[in-house]
Each structure stands twice: as structure tokens, then as C-alpha cells.
From TrEMBL:
This is aromatase. It is found in: Endoplasmic reticulum membrane. It comes from Acanthochromis polyacanthus. One of its GO terms (cellular component) is endoplasmic reticulum membrane. Belongs to the cytochrome P450 family. GO terms for molecular function: aromatase activity; heme binding; iron ion binding. The chain crosses the membrane at residues 14-35. It catalyses: testosterone + 3 reduced [NADPH--hemoprotein reductase] + 3 O2 = 17beta-estradiol + formate + 3 oxidized [NADPH--hemoprotein reductase] + 4 H2O + 4 H(+); androst-4-ene-3,17-dione + 3 reduced [NADPH--hemoprotein reductase] + 3 O2 = estrone + formate + 3 oxidized [NADPH--hemoprotein reductase] + 4 H2O + 4 H(+). SUPFAM superfamilies: Cytochrome P450. Catalyzes the formation of aromatic C18 estrogens from C19 androgens. The keyword ATP-binding does not apply. It is an enzyme of class 1 (oxidoreductase). Its EC number is 1.14.14.14.
């Protein structure tokens, strides 16, 4: 009887109990929010910066119209060394734009920031870019042999083949004096090249017609990852999953993963009868995928299927998209600077003579062209920024300190255009990279491939491909600026232009 009365009383009063429960939850959540925001503000208190909105942070100040990179540079002039920016009410980053500050972070092995990069995890997995600690160390050691110069040597021939396919396609354009967009065609070429070099696979993506489905998926994933980072409600997995953008993201991930799975499947089938790397090397040149499949640590353990796909996805993305950005902006810079373009062409013609191909030995014999490539990487770094999460307190050279857990953004674009480091930073001047000028600067003033233990493992591959593509292009075509088309820069994981990258070309005079 007593139980029945108690149950009846509860049934009558449950709305009140529920209301009290909801109130307690709201008060608890609000208290946690206030405390977390107060801690975030206190942690960043030593660093003044642009005033954020209490809810949206600084997000509303970014227009995504091609002016945001300039805004960061102006803030850099106002706030020396570093300044905080807020993405929502809790996510705060200290943006570093000076080499003396960047050095403190880059010489450490602090992990990539979980918030900035976790939105890519479904796409590229927990590979070398996103992993940390012992897993990152193990993978770095296993992958390093894949970038030995003996492995890179044969790639020059394949890079040359892919570049020549692209240049052949440009012949009809060269006769019209019409402006054309570079980035999409260069992306196809670098995808074709990475497939040949790293995976011994002829994709024919440059000649099959239309835009390659994988490249379209990479564009979509880059855009949506950046959008999710800037839209703080999307930081919640469930909200993003239920949104139209979440649906588009999952669809693009399936396209990218199908592409990767097919590459791995075909190679495993081809290697079924080979169980030693030395036996395979006797038959043909090794590629990146061979080394991944045969990689073993001290315990003779290789990469799991999941780790294998993560590394292939990472290299597939970073090996073609970043290089496409670097090549496209380098060609644009040379089109805008005909004097330097001519010096490069003369140097290339002297080295190559009558050849229309590049050999491994030629790469080290074009110093002026290499300086021009580096200068374009300074002005237009393919990866305009990177982010880290501190696992321990860190003090900078001026005495200011950040506690463990702080998020740090290293603005490569900001460092490369910092007027206190570079004289006339917006001017294209390859002589900045003469040895005597390089020795006067901080080694962290030029970091297109990052620096320190977490630098880009594929930087030599990227530089080699840039040299091959630019040398063969300049030997064959004169690049001409179209002043009516100026790139509107935007950072979407990779540096891109909202309105494309446009130039004109014409055949080089045979007498020249």
C-alpha cells in the first residue's frame, strides 16, 4: 500500500522532478561553460589581439572573399610576434607570425592540434599527419626509407612524363593568346604523377576527359573541413552528422576511400607471389606503396590495414594537392616577373641543351630556377598554416608563457610576409635565397615544409616535382600575366585562389 502511494505521488509530481533535473543540468552546463571560457581567457591573457564576439569569437570578421589573408597580415602588424583568435566561445588559438616564436614550437615534437585536424580524421585516418606520440614516431621511422634519394631518383622520369602530357594539352591554348586557368590542370598532372611515382599506376586522369572524381572529392573535403572548423556548432559530431554538409562530407569520403582501396587492392594482388623486398627490387624500381607494404619494425610488425590506408590517403592528398598549389603559384609568379622568367629559361636551356626531358642530375644544376621556386613558396606557401596542442607549459623568448592544453596556430603565410623579417615582403625577389642572404636570417623565417621533427617527410619529392614541371614548362612556353586576373587567396587546408589562377602562354621562339 505504501509503495502504491509513493508511486502515485511520484506520478503526480514527476513534471516537477523533471523540471528540477533540467534546471540542475542547465546550471551545471552553464557553470562548466563559464569556467572553461574564463580559463581560456586567462591562459591567453598575456597576448592582446583583435576583439572577439563573446559567442562567435572572431569568425564573423572573416569574410571568405579572398581578403582574410590580408586581414591576418594587418593584425600581425598590430600585434607583434603572436595574437589570439577565437573560433566560437571556447576555441582559442594563439597565432604565431614570427620565426623567433615559431622556433619554440617547431623544434618540439608537440602533436598536431586535435580540434584543427580531427575534422580530417574520417578522411585521412590516423596516419603520419594526425598521429602523435609513439605511433607517430614508429610510422615516421617506417616511412622514412620511402623518401631515400635512391627511391626518389627514378621518379624524375615519371614526373617528366606526366608534365609532358600536360604541356602537350596546352599546345592549342598557346596558339590562341587566351587566358586559361592553371590549378585544375596542374592538379590532374600532379595526381597522375603521384599515381605513377608512389603507386606505379597509370591513371590516365589527364586524358580521360572531365574532372577526376577523386580530385573533386579532395576539393570538397578540403572545403568542408575548413567550413566545419569555422562553424563552431559543427564542432559537435552529431550536429555535423545530421547537417547537409555532413552528408556531403561522408559522400566525398567514400569517393576518396574507394579510390585508395582500389590502389591498395591491386598492389596486394600483384605482390601475392613476392614476400621479400629484395626480390621485388631485383625485378623493378620500388615505390612508396611497396615500402609501406613491406615495412617492419624491430618486432617484425608491419602496418595494419587501417594504418596502411591512412598513410596512403595522407600521401595521396599531400603528395598531389600541396604540390599542385606550389607549381601553380610558381608559374603565376614567373608570368608576373618576365625578367626572372627569362633568366630561368636561359639557365634551363643551358643545362638541358636539346633534351625535352629532365634527369636526376639536372635537378641540382638549376640554382636560379630553384631560388625562384623558393621565393614563390615564400609568397604562396602551399600549406599556409599549421596547428599544435601543447602537452606541457611553454615559454617564449620574451618571457610570455602558455599552459599545457593551449592551442597554437603557426601562420606560415604570416611568417613569410612579416615585414620585420623580410624587406619589401610582397615583392618577388629570388635573390633573397642566395647563400649569403640565407645565412643572415633565422632558419625558421622560411618554413614552407615546416621544420623540426614534424617537418614534411615528402619535401624532397615535392621540390623535385616542382623543378621538373617548371623547367619543362619554361623550356617550351613563355608565361604571360593577365592583369585582369588577380588571385584571391584563401586557406582551405591548402592555399588556393577563390577565382582560380590564370595566365597566358605562347610557344618559346626556337631562336631564343
Amino acid at each position: 500500500m505504501e509503495f502504491s502511494e509513493a508511486l502515485l505521488k511520484f506520478q503526480l509530481n514527476w513534471p516537477h522532478f523533471f523540471a528540477v533535473f533540467c534546471l540542475v543540468v542547465v546550471v551545471y552546463k552553464s557553470s562548466v561553460f563559464v569556467l572553461r571560457r574564463r580559463d581560456a581567457q586567462r591562459n591567453i591573457g598575456a597576448f592582446p589581439g583583435p576583439k572577439p564576439n563573446w559567442l562567435f569569437g572572431n569568425v564573423m570578421q572573416f569574410k571568405q572573399d579572398g581578403t582574410d589573408m590580408e586581414k591576418f597580415l594587418k593584425w600581425g602588424e598590430q600585434y607583434p610576434y603572436a595574437f589570439p583568435t577565437w573560433f566560437g566561445p571556447l576555441a582559442c588559438y594563439l597565432n604565431i607570425h614570427h620565426p623567433d616564436y615559431a622556433k619554440t614550437i617547431l623544434v618540439s615534437s608537440e602533436p598536431k592540434c586535435d580540434l584543427a585536424y580531427k575534422f580530417m580524421a574520417d578522411w585521412i585516418g590516423n596516419g603520419l599527419l594526425l598521429s602523435k606520440g609513439q605511433k607517430w614516431f614508429r610510422h615516421r621511422r617506417l616511412l622514412t626509407p620511402g623518401f631515400h634519394y635512391e627511391v626518389l631518383k627514378p621518379y624524375v622520369t615519371q614526373m617528366t612524363e606526366s608534365t609532358k602530357v600536360m604541356l602537350n594539352k596546352w599546345e592549342s591554348t598557346a596558339k590562341t593568346n587566351k587566358t586559361f586557368e592553371l590549378f585544375e590542370q596542374v592538379s590532374l598532372m600532379t595526381l597522375d604523377s603521384i599515381m605513377k611515382c608512389a603507386f606505379s599506376c597509370s591513371s590516365n586522369c589527364q586524358t580521360e576527359g572531365g574532372t577526376n572524381a577523386y580530385i573533386k572529392a579532395v576539393y570538397e573535403l578540403s572545403h568542408l573541413s575548413n567550413l566545419r572548423f569555422r562553424t563552431f556548432p559543427y564542432h559537435n559530431d552529431l550536429i555535423f552528422y545530421l547537417s547537409p554538409h555532413g552528408y556531403r562530407y561522408r559522400k566525398a569520403v567514400r569517393v576518396a576511400h574507394n579510390h585508395t582501396d582500389e590502389v591498395i587492392k591491386k598492389r596486394k594482388e600483384a605482390l601475392e607471389e613476392v614476400n621479400e623486398l629484395s626480390r621485388l627490387q631485383a625485378k623493378r624500381n620500388l615505390d612508396f606503396l611497396d615500402i609501406l607494404l613491406f615495412a617492419r619494425d624491430e618486432q617484425q610488425q608491419g602496418l595494419s590495414d587501417e594504418d596502411l590506408r591512412a598513410e596512403v590517403d595522407t600521401f595521396m592528398f599531400e603528395g598531389h594537392d600541396t604540390t599542385a598549389s606550389g607549381i601553380s603559384f610558381a608559374l603565376y609568379c614567373l608570368a608576373c616577373n618576365p625578367k626572372h622568367q627569362k633568366i630561368c629559361r636561359d639557365e634551363i636551356n643551358e643545362v638541358l641543351g636539346g633534351k625535352d626531358t629532365m634527369d636526376w642530375e639536372d635537378l641540382s644544376n638549376i640554382p636560379y630556377t630553384t631560388m625562384c621556386i623558393k621565393e614563390s613558396l615564400r609568397l604562396y606557401p602551399p600549406v599556409p598554416g599549421t596547428a599544435r596542442r601543447l602537452t606541457k607549459p611553454m615559454t617564449f623568448f620574451d618571457g610570455r608563457t602558455l599552459p599545457a592544453g593551449s592551442r597554437i596556430g603557426i601562420s606560415v603565410f604570416g611568417i613569410h610576409r612579416n615585414a620585420t623579417v623580410w624587406e619589401n615582403p610582397d615583392v618577388f625577389d629570388p635573390l633573397r635565397f642566395l647563400p649569403e642572404n640565407v645565412s643572415k636570417r633565422s632558419p625558421h623565417a622560411f618554413v614552407p615544409f615546416a621544420a623540426g621533427p614534424r617537418n614534411c617527410i615528402g619535401q624532397n619529392f615535392a621540390m623535385n616535382e616542382m623543378k621538373v614541371a617548371i623547367a619543362l614548362t619554361l623550356k617550351r612556353y613563355e608565361l604571360i600575366e593577365d592583369p585582369s586576373f588577380k588571385p584571391k587567396l584563401i586557406a582551405r587546408l591548402i592555399l588556393r585562389s577563390l577565382n582560380g589562377i590564370y595566365i597566358k602562354i605562347k610557344p618559346v621562339n626556337p631562336v631564343e
